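Format notes (please read before filing issues)

Several people have asked whether sequences and structure tokens are stored in separate files. They are not. Every record keeps both together, in the order shown below: the sequence lines, then the token lines. Line labels are part of the format and must not be stripped during preprocessing.
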Amino acid sequence: MATDELMTRALDALGDDGPLSAEAIHRLADLADLPETMTIADVAALLGISPHTLRYYERAGLVEVARDGQGHRVYDAETVRRLVFLTRMRLSGMPMRDLQHYISLVDAGGHTVPERLDVLVEHRDTIRRRIRELTLSLTAVEYKIATYGGSTGPDVQDLGTTDRTALPDEPVRRALPAE
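Then the structure lines:
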């Protein structure tokens, strides 16, 4: 499943109202009812990703997966929990090299907690910057929607669209029809 589809599923599970919280994240990661072991197809369906992606994570050293007597992958709950984390980090835009570094720290043991914290704080700061950039882009889109007489979302302040049809970096086009 594509990243957009996985993010859509995650947001749908949370709903539109109410604040996002650690509890909401725990609900998304509730693995209490999982079987003791799962096949690659089961895990792919659960996480909304392809078996190819699961094999890629294994080749990249992010997870170790046991094999049964016939050589088929057998995922246990601990591996599935790690995969839930990995998919969330990938959805948040964490590059594979950073994820590999983080997992190598986790696998190295508890003495790496300060370095893990540094990795996560840096990633958090990157996410916050992206949110601000996207918020600015959303404001530009809402401005244009209001300019053309459309209705903006309830969380949008008055954008002052009385005489302008262009953003500052866009030429004003008074005589042309709406774009």
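For reference, the curators noted about this record: The radius of gyration is 22 Å. The beta strands are 37-38, 66-67, 73-76.
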